[in-house]
Fold this sequence. Notes:
Blueprint: H1 2-22, E1 31-33, E2 41-45, E3 51-54, E4 57-59, E5 66-70, E6 79-85, E7 88-94, E8 103-106, H2 111-114, H3 121-135, E9 156-159, E10 164-167, E11 170-174, E12 178-181, E13 187-189, E14 194-203, E15 207-215, E16 218-228, E17 235-236, E18 241-245, E19 255-262, E20 265-267
Parallel strand pairs: 8-10
Antiparallel strand pairs: 1-2, 2-5, 3-4, 3-6, 6-7, 9-12, 10-11, 12-19, 13-18, 14-15, 14-17, 15-16, 16-18, 16-19, 19-20
Amino acid sequence: MIRCNSLNVKTMLRVIFLFIILIPSSALAISFDGKFVQGHFIIGKTQPKTEIWVDKKKVKVTKDGYFVFGIGRDRKYDIIITSEKDGKKTKTVKKVQKREYRIQRIDGLPEKKVTPPPEVYERIKRENKIIADARAIESDLTFFKKKFIAPLENAIITGVYGSQRILNGKPKWPHYGIDFAAKEGTKIKAMLDGTATMVEPDLFYTGGTLIFDHGHGISTLYMHMQKIFVKKGQKVKQGDIIGTVGSTGRSTGAHLDIRLNWFGTRLDPMTVLNLKN
C-alpha cells in the first residue's frame, strides 16, 4: 500500500514537471507593473533578448528585459502586446478600462490666450513642432524604471489630468497634466534622472518650459516656469533644482503644470507619483 502511494506520488511529480517544461516559455515571459486604464503608465518585464511590439509599434527592450508604454486619455480599444523570441511569437491582449473625467472651468484669461489672434498661429505651430520633436526622441536611457518623486513639496493640486477645460466659458482641449499651486519663485525638483532635450524660456501657451528625456520615449515636461536653471543637453539627477515656479504663458496665477508622455501619447502623471488629490 505504501509502495503504491509512493509510485503514485512519483508519477504525479513527473506529470507536473512535464507540464511545466512543456508550457511555452513566451507564455510566462511578460509581466506588467501598472493598470490597463486610460492615461496610465505601464512598465513591462520580459526575458532578455525578447522583441516586443505594442500594437504595431516595436519598442525598445533593456538588456534585463524591461520595456515601457502608455495608454492615451481616450483609448477605447484593446492593447495587443506581441513578443517574439527564438522565432516564436506570442500575443497578449489587454482590455483598457474607461475613466470618467472632471470638468474644469477657468475664467479671467486674456482673450488672446483663449482664442489666439491669427498673427500668432505660425508661432504656435513652430513651438508645437519643437515640443513634438523633443517628445519623439527614443534614447537608450533607462531612467524610466526608477520611482518618480514630486516636483514640489507640500503643493496643492488645483488641476488634474483628463479634465475637460472650459476657458472663459468656451470648451477647449482637455488638460493633460497636473497643476500645482505654489508661490512664485518656489524651487522645482527634477522628478527623475534625465537629459534636457528642450529648454524654452517663453512659449506662447506654456511660458518657461522644460522637457526631459528618461529613455524609451518617456519624457516629462514642466510649464509656466519663472526661471530655468538647466541648459539643453544637460544631464540632471532626481531631486536636482531645475528652476522656479512662475506664471508665464497662458496662466492666471503662479503654478507648475507637469506632463508625462510616451512619445506623443499623453499620460497621467498621477500614475507615477504617489500623491492624493
